[in-house]
Amino acid sequence: MKYKNMLSSYCQAVDRCIRMIGESVAWFMPVLALVVGFEVFARYLFGSPTEWAFDVSLFIASYVAALSGALAQQSFSHINVDILYEKVSACCQSIFNLIIYLIIGFFMSVVLIMAIDRFQEALVYDYRRMSDWAPAMHHFWVMLAVSAGLVLLQLSSHCIKDVYFLLHRQALPVPVKEHGYEY
Predict the structure, then answer these.
(1) Contacts of 31 (CB under 8 A, 6+ apart)
(2) Are 57 and 35 in contact (CB under 8 A)?
(3) What is the DSSP code string of 38-82?
(4) Crossing angle, helix 90-125 and helix 138-168, to 10 degrees?
């Protein structure tokens, strides 16, 4: 009984963390719109394009896309072959999910390892984006490593839920609230 609460609390904490990060990343979208709007304004009204706006907008869009990947995984927004998936039992669906999670997990592990290596290279060799502004690139590799780690974290929550379902033929229960607090 205790392990159920522990697993459930872990999954809830991961889900809450991923949701909070994914939803907070959405606040970058108005910033992106402002940067692009400023560039359009500067370029076409004053005939003086900025050196930095394209790079900043590229980085912001990359951050939004990568850091919201774990939230997309959490809400099952990825592509699925519903024709087959919906015609099988819930146990078979859990097995399909676990196979997919292994494939995604392998890919994300490779991305994580490569991003960490590239981050170290970027620091040692002072990698910069090849543009007139030439911003440093190390932050990009940190973001990519963090986003891969977040997807792996979300996959761990999904795996726990699917393995629990396969073993017990029921969904992992949500921890009971006592005195207004979850445990």
Answers:
(1) 60
(2) yes
(3) HHHHHHHHSS---SSHHHHHHHHHHHHHHHTHHHHHHTT-S---H
(4) 160
CA neighbor of 131 nearest in space, from 40, 38, 54, 44: 54
- Surface-to-core class of residue 109, CB atoms within 10 Å of its CB (0-12 exposed, 13-18 middle, 19+ buried): middle
What pLDDT digit, counting tens, does each position of 116-152 carry?
999 999 999 999 999 999 999 999 999 999 999 999 9
Rg over CA atoms, the chain: 21
- The dihedral formed by the CA atoms of 29, 137, 116 and 63, expressed in degrees to the nearest 10: 0
Task: Work out the percent of the chain whose per-residue pLDDT is above 90.
Answer: 86
Of 50, 68, 58, the C-alpha closest to 32 is 58
The number of beta carbons lying within 10 Å of the beta carbon of residue 30 is: 9
Q: Decide if 18 contacts 153 (C-beta within 8 A).
A: yes
Are 171 and 120 a contacting pair, CB within 8 Å? Answer: no
